[in-house]
């Protein structure tokens, strides 16, 4: 038996909206350590990892480890029926072929029930343990604007971390080229904090990074971790109860990639 009650139901809506354009079908895992999702996109370029810990729920019951295959677009359609202040309860019986979602208004005068069919999805849970050469923490709204602005100029961005700071540079497109450098500022809430063992510079597809920024409403800050020739990690912490992490493989010279997430 699985039963999860989330008082801040809008949080689940934001999480699903943040990842559904990167990964369409995925397995939701539930265990004593939390409610999680991990899956690689169809092009095997990006990976999404989500964790919501038990302490983030008003009620958390998971009698045994369970895996449920879901279509995130379908789940998004159902969650849009919930009000932003609604309490969301997620239930699944052992051996069931569907997931039950119940939405309650704060005064409990309105209750809506939905059932979503589950899918059989084969996937492998990956352990990601990498030592990063540089870790950058910056305002998530700033990262969103950078990805949005540079994607209108070019397709590829070079992210460089040096002792001078953090720099985003787009490749030359039909319009021209652009770059953005973040330096030290006096206001802590606007600061870009860098921890670096050695300088790093890697190229990434802007269309993916722009898609990752749909998680901006989840956190005021974003943590970007880089290592040479390894996937970038883009993490949005959800208060103290969990996170949404995106991983993206670096671009290789003369690489051709025709896949593209939706805007």
UniProtKB/TrEMBL annotation:
The record ties this protein, via SUPFAM superfamilies, to: DNA clamp
Please tell me one Gene Ontology term that the record gives under cellular component.
Answer: PCNA complex
The Gene Ontology biological process annotation of the record reads: leading strand elongation; mismatch repair; regulation of DNA replication; translesion synthesis
Tell me which UniProt keywords the record has, alphabetically.
DNA replication, DNA-binding, Nucleus
One MF term from GO for this chain?
DNA binding
Q: According to its UniProt record, where is this protein located? A: Nucleus
Report domain Proliferating cell nuclear antigen PCNA C-terminal positions.
130-251
Tell me the superkingdom of the source. Eukaryota
Chain coiled-coil ranges: none
Q: Which CDD domains match?
A: PCNA
Say yes or no: keyword Nucleus present. Answer: yes
Per UniProt, residues of the Proliferating cell nuclear antigen PCNA N-terminal domain are 1-124
| Main function | This protein is an auxiliary protein of DNA polymerase delta and is involved in the control of eukaryotic DNA replication by increasing the polymerase's processivity during elongation of the leading strand.
Q: Which NCBIfam families did the record assign?
A: pcna (TIGR00590)
* Record-stated family: Belongs to the PCNA family.
- What is the official name of this protein in its record? DNA sliding clamp PCNA
Recorded source organism is Canavalia gladiata (Sword bean)
Lineage, please? Answer: Eukaryota, Viridiplantae, Streptophyta, Embryophyta, Tracheophyta
């Amino acid at each position: 038996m699985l039963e999860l009650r989330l008082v801040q139901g809008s949080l689940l809506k934001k999480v699903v909206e943040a990842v559904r354009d990167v990964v369409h079908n995925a397995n939701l895992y539930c265990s004593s350590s939390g409610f999680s999702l991990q899956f690689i996109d169809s092009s095997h370029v990006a990976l999404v990892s989500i964790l919501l810990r038990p302490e983030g729920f008003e009620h958390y019951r998971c009698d045994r480890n369970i895996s449920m295959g879901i279509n995130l677009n379908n789940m998004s359609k159902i969650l849009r029926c919930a009000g932003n202040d609604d309490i969301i309860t997620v239930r699944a019986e052992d051996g069931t072929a569907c997931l039950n979602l119940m939405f309650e208004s704060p005064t409990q005068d309105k209750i809506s029930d939905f059932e979503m069919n589950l899918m059989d999805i084969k996937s492998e849970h990956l352990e990601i343990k990498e030592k990063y050469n540089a870790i950058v923490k910056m305002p998530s709204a700033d990262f969103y604007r950078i990805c949005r602005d540079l994607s209108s100029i070019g397709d590829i961005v070079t992210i460089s971390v040096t002792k001078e700071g953090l720099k985003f540079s787009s490749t030359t497109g039909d319009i021209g080229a652009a770059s953005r450098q973040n330096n030290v500022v006096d206001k802590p809430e606007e600061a870009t904090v860098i921890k670096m063992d050695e300088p790093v510079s890697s190229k990434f597809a802007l269309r993916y990074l722009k898609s990752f920024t749909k998680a901006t409403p989840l956190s005021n800050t974003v943590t970007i971790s880089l290592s040479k020739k390894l996937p970038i990690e883009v993490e949005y912490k959800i208060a103290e109860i969990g996170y949404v992490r995106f991983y993206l493989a670096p671009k290789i010279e003369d690489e051709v990639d025709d896949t593209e997430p939706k805007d």
